[in-house]
Amino acid sequence: MDKVINDFLGELTHDKRLSKNTLESYSRDIRQFLTYLNENNIDFKNVKKTNIIAYILYLQKECRAVSSISRSLASIRAFYRVLIKNHIVTYDPTLDLESPKIEKKMPQILSISEVENLLSIIDVSEPKGARDKAMLEVLYATGIRVTELVNLEVSDVNLEVGYIKCNGNKERIIPIGKIAIDSLGNYLNNHRSYFVKNEEEKSLFLNFHGEKMTRQGFWKIIKYYAALADIDKEITPHTLRHSFAAHLIENGADLKSVQQMLGHSDISTTQIYAEMIKNRIGDVYKKTHPRA
Q1: Where in the sequence is the domain holding 56, given as residue range(s)?
Q2: Which of 41, 77, 214, 274 has the fewest CB atoms within 10 Å, i.e. the most exposed one?
């Protein structure tokens, strides 16, 4: 069994140049599949479509996530393609098998009043509060990813014109509003120097060690203020990005513009926010219209 798996992984490595993590996923999926076949006295060379379906049902009974089952099926497909290519089998049992549908989860968002409560509760008179307020305001004003936020450098900010330069998967220029500009100005002009330990440090947002703020550090910050604002929702740093997009679309922004600001390569990813707003409007109508 090991030789079959190693030959399969070697073929993938040569043809597709996959990452180590992806190869490990393929290896894990195929080992689990071959173990299942062995326990049920089925030779992998004689597997039929019904055996694959039975395996999928087995994974469902094991309460595996739909995404996990879908990935396992993709691994098995790749496995049999390699076996056919190498003339080990002549039949592909995965042909015409559909992957389980992965239900799109609607992202968690804050209402506008919740965002205002979260951002107004911060004390900006001292360095930590000024920094935290600037970070949260920029995140909500631009919808950038947390990684992009903590990777911002001082030179990426233009307060006079009112934009930030974001160097994510693709560089993009994103406008920021007056409140975010004021918060950034307060932090840069009055408080950033408090955190600076090395004058050559270019990062915009620094921790108490004078180093670039980390994702984990920012996670703790947003959790702290969410608790302080008594917001009873599971909030992550991505929540403000989702809220940014949803509020723009709710107030009439077109999908293409929101897609560009978010840095989505595919507009279908942005479409989920429009669907969410549509569903919410339907719920409001049903709850409030006397004849709904």
Answers
A1: 2-85
A2: 41
